[in-house]
């Protein structure tokens, strides 16, 4: 008997196969039991017809509890009524383990209850679909950067300095030294770019930011490319090509998941480079025209401001050239202005906010020394970073994409807590 997974059923139509599954749900009439089965690769309906199986099999089917684990044997048939396209005509059932009062039933539950049971909530159709889309974005990320000549480099998670200051970092002791959980691998990726030309990292980052918004997590994952000999405008082209690539990959490879999530795919289908660009100056003017009189030049944008700007376009939009005073020390000044820097935030449509922050990096030694001083940063802690500007420095650029915000946008999730398997929030470290 061939053991297969649900995702492979299309290759076994008309065959009798064995599946290891969990019972997601069931319903039955007097003569037929419909079992909603899942195995991690997908969901399929198993049909148990009383007249076609031994009596004990039908009795077992009707007595099963939600999330019990089973081996089922049956024939794979086509089912044009379902989005999956196949179902299983069940002939035999072997119960592996009965679930005991599974707490997440097919009804509405409060978010705190679901978060307390996150280890089980992941099994639901919606959460399964979001995790599959997350995986596709990760797969497509590796594919995009590998196909475009990037080398993956892994920066450290424990660092002795902070790229953007220490106020929002988790502090720990590294034996007899101070250390921090990384909020970005960028500085190390700049060093890697000087060795390998075009590099990217993908790993966890941490922000000790006491925020409760639907866009913020304490622990999240970042994709951070850095590119030598690449200036600001060239970097923007890479960013829009990359985002377009992952969106189109999800549309191609996650059709069932997007349908299960009820995602309006028409809003994703036209996400193709190039993306519109608006300067920070013009963004301020646009916001004033829209009635946001509270924002003045020199202030950073909040969620309502980003949403208003995004609504003006039907694609992700770059906001470029922010004031120097609200951006980190490593950003390259504008060649014609001393009050703004060569940077951009990419704002996702539909109110999901910033998904990418990037810039051209300062490559001049004296200017970098000056910037460190202006930001009251200990030059000795950044000696190696400063040294890069003395050893064959070149213009270079990079950016960071927040995976969870991107997953939330593409899937239409209401909160980023649903776009990571086990979210770490301001008041949540369990499970």
From TrEMBL:
SUPFAM superfamilies for this protein: Class II aaRS and biotin synthetases, Nucleic acid-binding proteins
GO biological process: asparaginyl-tRNA aminoacylation
Major localisation: cytoplasm
UniProt-annotated location(s): Cytoplasm
Family annotation (InterPro entries): Aa-tRNA-synt_II, aa-tRNA-synth_II, aa-tRNA-synth_II/BPL/LPL, Asn-tRNA-ligase, Asp/Asn-tRNA-synth_IIb, NA-bd_OB-fold, NA-bd_OB_tRNA
Record-level GO cellular component terms: cytoplasm
Any Pfam family matching the protein: tRNA-synt_2
Keyword ATP-binding tagged: yes
EC id: 6.1.1.22
Reaction it catalyzes: tRNA(Asn) + L-asparagine + ATP = L-asparaginyl-tRNA(Asn) + AMP + diphosphate + H(+)
Keywords, in A-Z order: Aminoacyl-tRNA synthetase, ATP-binding, Cytoplasm, Ligase, Nucleotide-binding, Protein biosynthesis
Highest taxon of the lineage: Bacteria
Domain Aminoacyl-transfer RNA synthetases class-II family profile: 131-431
A Gene Ontology molecular function term of the record: nucleic acid binding
Oligomeric and partner information: Homodimer.
Family that this chain belongs to: Belongs to the class-II aminoacyl-tRNA synthetase family.
Protein name, per record: Asparagine--tRNA ligase
